Amino acid sequence: MRLMKGIVLMMWCRYLPAVYDPSTKTLHVHPSTPLYLFAHRVKRLRTAPVSAPPAQAAKAQWRQERNDLGEAFGTRKAKAQIKSEERNKVNADAMQDAKGHLMETIGELQKEEEVTAPSDIIPTPNLETSDPSEVYPREAVIPNQEWSSIDVSQMLHTEDDKERIGYLPSRRSFWVQNKCRSVYNIKDKAAKKTQMKYLYYLSCLLQFLDFAPRLSKTAAAELTSKFPGVPQQILDGLITRFSEQSGRKHAVTEKTKAKLLSWICLLYLTLDGYSVEVGRIAKDLKMEPAKVATYYKQLGCNVKLATPAEREAQGITLAEAGQMRRAVMVAPVKFPKTKRRGPAQH
């Protein structure tokens, strides 16, 4: 009964405004006032026209009036100019039919641009293979004529490591020296000979890299004496691919040096089973690891850190793992997207 009574009282409740006076400590209750709706108007717009003509339409009308005056009173040159403008004016209505076709074409072109092409400073890759060892065929790295000119018979028959290393054109690389010992211990004779020829060619590239700053100062007739023991076919190929002609001499430019380093990094990768430690290669080339990592990314390699499980198994920290990043060739090969700079801000 009490619940029903409370509900009835609530149905008859009303909210009223009240004002409290602190000085007299009294509360004045006022009956509810009616609700008024106001419309906001700007006085300055009362005299403005309801709709103003668009600026583009006014400009077109002015141009038409100017052309009419030109045709009536203008010179021959002015009249010819007016007729030329009329012929070249784009008809917007006629372009509506072609709009859809143009938009479809633009969409297709954008989709094609999403496919990233390989850099022009690397050998021509095989984009279809799923075998990492076939991404860069030997012919794309070392032409047949140069490959045939490499003779490693003395290196294969010599048992003394120091004497074997002495047959290499460049003997400053500790990586090459250690690899020369391990290649000699390969049991398969065919694989052993192939790896030794790759190693010899890498040594030729390293010698050419060391000589690059002096190439532009050396006459063509003296080049053979600067590369003792290097077959002429290989020397000619190196000069053709990794330098630019300047008069009667050649010079290694910034671009051709980047191309040379790409070839060198690829041969390190090939000789190490398509997985190399970036830090070791950078140390051998006396370069920053980040720069070497960039070359391997351009070749299509994945440059990654060791996983937490691998770091735990090897007993190394994250900082140490950063110095031991590996570049691994993957297939089918994918290349990094080229970063495009936006327009200059003025």
Provide a descriptive summary of the structure in words:
GO terms for molecular function: DNA binding. Residues 1-18 form the signal peptide. Belongs to the eukaryotic RPA49/POLR1E RNA polymerase subunit family. One of its GO terms (biological process) is DNA-templated transcription. By secondary structure, this protein is mostly helical. It has a domain at 138-329. The chain contains 17 helices and 7 strands. The longest helix has 27 residues, at 189-215. It is flat, with a radius of gyration of 40 Å.
What is the gist of this entry?
This protein has 346 residues and is mostly helical.
Summed up, the helix count is: 17
Number of strands: 7
Helix content: 40-55%
User: How would a textbook summarize the main sheet?
Assistant: 3 strands, antiparallel
Portion of residues in beta strands equals: 5-15%
End-to-end gap: 81 Å
Order of helices and strands: HEEHHHHHHHHHHHEEHEHHEHHE
Integer average pLDDT? 82
Cα shape: flat
Rg = 40 Å
Query: How is the largest sheet built, in terms of strand order?
Result: 5-7-6
Secondary-structure-based class equals mainly alpha
Give the low-pLDDT segments.
108-115
Pfam families: RNA_pol_I_A49
Protein name: DNA-directed RNA polymerase I subunit RPA49
Organism: Cryptococcus amylolentus CBS 6039
Signal peptide: 1-18
Which keywords apply here?
346 residues; mainly alpha; three-stranded antiparallel sheet; two-stranded antiparallel sheet
Q: Which helices and strands, and how do they pair?
A:
Layout: H1 2-11, E1 18-21, E2 26-29, H2 55-73, H3 76-88, H4 92-113, H5 138-141, H6 144-149, H7 153-157, H8 161-166, H9 174-184, H10 189-215, H11 223-226, H12 232-242, E3 244-246, E4 249-251, H13 254-271, E5 275-277, H14 278-285, H15 289-298, E6 301-304, H16 308-314, H17 318-323, E7 326-329
Antiparallel strand pairs: 1-2, 3-4, 5-7, 6-7
Helix pairs in contact: 9-10, 10-13, 13-15, 14-15
